[in-house]
Amino acid sequence: MHDKKNNRRLIIFAAAALIIAGLYTFYQLNFDILYYQLPSRLNRVATMIIVGIAIALSTVIFQTITKNRILTPSIMGLDSVYLFIQTVIVFVAGARSPLITNDNVNYLVSMIGLVIFTVFVFKYLFKMTGNHVFLLLLIGIILGTFFSSLSTFMQMLINPDDFLVLQSSMFASFNAINEQLLWITAAIVLVMLLIVLKDFHSLDVITLGRDHAINLGVNYDRKVSQLLLIIAVLVSVSTALVGPIMFLGLLVVNLAHEVFKTYKHRYLLIGSSLIAVITLLVGQILTQYVFNQAVEISVIINLVGGVYFIILMLKESRR
Amino acid sequence: MIDLKGISKFYGQKKVVNDVSVSIAKGKVTSFIGPNGAGKSTVLSMVTRLLNHDSGEVLLEGKNILNAPSDALAKKIAILKQSNNMDLKITVRELISFGRFPYSKGRLTQKDNEIIDEAISYMELEDFEERYIDELSGGQRQRVYIAMTIAQDTEYIFLDEPLNNLDMKHSVQIMQILRRLVRERNKTIIIVIHDINFASCYSDNIVAMKDGKIAVSGKKDDVIKKEILEDIYEMDINIECIYGQQICVYFDEHENATVDDFIEDQARA
Questions:
Q1: Mutation target vs A (from B10, B76, B88; most A CBs, 10 A cutoff)
Q2: How high is the ipTM of this complex?
Q3: Does B132 contact A at CB distance below 8 Å?
Q4: What is the pTM for the complete model shown?
Q5: B89/A205 CB distance under 8 A
Q6: How far apart are the first and last CA of chain B?
Q7: Which of B157, B190, B187 is nearest to B30 (CA)?
Q8: Could you tell me the sign of the dihedral formed by the alpha carbons of A155, A160, A161, A166, in that order?
Q9: In A, which residues are within 8 Å of B73 by CB distance?
Q10: What does R_g of chain B's alpha carbons equal in angstroms?
């Protein structure tokens, strides 16, 4: 009976996402520049859907593995590594290098860098730490801090013009996303989504903890390292596409927990993806029409997310 | 039948389990007893693949358990560890349903639901089937976990201190259910237990451990003996026969002895 209610909630969220996406696409559509305006808006909507799904999925899975509701994959230092890659490019090759100005090349370099980092961390360090997730996270925090300190150091040395170029990659942006990259990312995210959805029942079992999961026949260590790699790929592609926007995950997954009140990943995965898409769409509408592009969308999301988080903490402490 | 062949576990330089070899008979209740830190729980975890052993092997009906696929093993052996704190919004019935995961992989069939119903009535949990587990008392929660293990319907059931946090009534209830599982369904049950009188009354075989090694193992009457237990626990223990059961009394035998006298005696010894 609880499931039925949750099914209804999923439908409501899906409808809301569709309506808001429709509104965003067709609001004040100027028919004189239809040929330019419509594809550009659809491009943004598609980007938001893909990034929303990638971030929601990776955060849900990450919180299930770590059994912690205030962690996000950014703790593994992927954001810092992304910024580090951008900074190194500007520092070494300069802001006019094709490595930073050409979207395709930049995407490729960022992807390769992030994947090398995660494969190193997960395949190598995960084995070395004896499959301890929390030890791995601690190493992630240290590496994250290390890379962001290095980035900050280099940012001090480069000239202010280069820094301005660099700054644009520090915030997520959904404007003018390269179409080719969008499709590549969409394909990768879709594959990951299918892999996760195919086996979401074992995520439910992993929620019970390592001992129960092994008892119930889930090959825990292999499954977890597979899931960590999926998280890494999802975070890497979405970060390489739009930039770092990890606070979104924390916000939407906690909202999904509040709304669905269940351990079942069928609802958590789909629900938080829908909430993420809605949040991004609303954020984008606010940046475009209320703030007239004066504020980055990630600033709005961080503001809303931060306020929500404080409310959440106050509510928890009052219990 | 489960055979442990010289299994050991090291934590750094320390050998917490040292060359343990023992056979566990089928269709019996076998209890592991011994002081804290004797390595009982570690042995249990290694036998049930929760923990890797550093040397030796565990044979389940003649085959090494590490070679068996994890999901096939989940239909043969079930393990319930002692700490089961879960911060999840999950109802009693949903948790017990997880016991069917090795068979149904999450898609419950009619047969699964019947087995779940049966496990619920076996543990007398009908009244709070739809309650969330974080609303239950420690004893009720323990019964829910045992029901989940019953729903898993394995030949071998391992329980690590199943009486933890339970009062006398519920302890007796659980031990009687375990005996019933052996009697009616020919299950093999292996428990780690601290209360030696519960071990003595309800098990068929007892394995006594000390300092990571097996001190004695055998039929319960061969293990529940004054000299053996005194050696294992390093304290005075007297054994009385009450209603045909060997009962350990940790008190002094002089007349009108108080607990304080006993403690003094212990200090002197």
A1: B88
A2: 0.85
A3: no
A4: 0.86
A5: no
A6: 41
A7: B190
A8: positive
A9: 217
A10: 20
